[in-house]
């Protein structure tokens, strides 16, 4: 008998006499028979015995704890076991991170002042020099330096329209 007068849970389940040097006795006490029963059902007593014998004594308790956890996971999900639980939790973390990023972006949008909207550009609003430069099409290398750019771009903090001055920033965006 491993550590007391009654046989350990494994010897009770296997209906054998519990020896003094029973490898299961320290890890499967008689008051918790379900612990060994589930490990035996998933891995088999012989395999568990071989695993425990190959390990140093100081690592056996952790190994038994892992075997019990994996056996419980295999009973719930016979195909994936604890990997299925880990995968589920990783997916849940990813979804929560996405929700957090969306919430943080919404908070930033609420904190930013509303940008001033540009009026619609009508052809009559473009001056003659710009029209002639656009129509001539000559010297295209200078074209990008001289033509006003009314393109939108998105920065990390807001959407800007190039050519529109930021009310908080006094310097010109024209180059």
TrEMBL record:
All copies of domain LOB, residue ranges: 6-107
InterPro entries: LOB
One Pfam family cited in the UniProt record for this chain: LOB
Family affiliation: Belongs to the LOB domain-containing protein family.
Name of the protein: LOB domain-containing protein
PANTHER family, sorted: LOB DOMAIN-CONTAINING PROTEIN 12 (PTHR31301:SF15), LOB DOMAIN-CONTAINING PROTEIN 4-RELATED (PTHR31301)
């Amino acid at each position: 008998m491993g550590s007391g007068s009654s046989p350990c849970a494994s010897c009770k389940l296997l209906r054998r006499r519990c020896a003094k040097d029973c490898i299961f006795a320290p890890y499967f006490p008689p008051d918790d028979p379900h612990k060994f029963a589930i490990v035996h059902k998933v891995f088999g007593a012989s395999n568990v015995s071989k695993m425990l014998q190959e390990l140093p004594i100081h690592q056996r308790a952790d190994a038994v704890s892992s075997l019990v956890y994996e056996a419980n996971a295999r009973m719930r999900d016979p195909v994936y076991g604890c990997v299925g639980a880990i995968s589920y939790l990783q997916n849940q973390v990813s979804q929560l991170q996405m929700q957090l990023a969306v919430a943080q972006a919404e908070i930033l949008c609420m904190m930013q002042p509303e940008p001033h909207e540009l009026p619609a550009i009508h052809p009559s609003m473009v001056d003659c020099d710009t029209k002639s430069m656009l129509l001539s099409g000559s010297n295209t290398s200078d074209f990008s330096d001289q033509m006003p750019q009314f393109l939108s771009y998105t920065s990390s903090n807001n959407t800007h329209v190039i050519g529109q001055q930021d009310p908080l920033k006094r310097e010109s965006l024209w180059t």
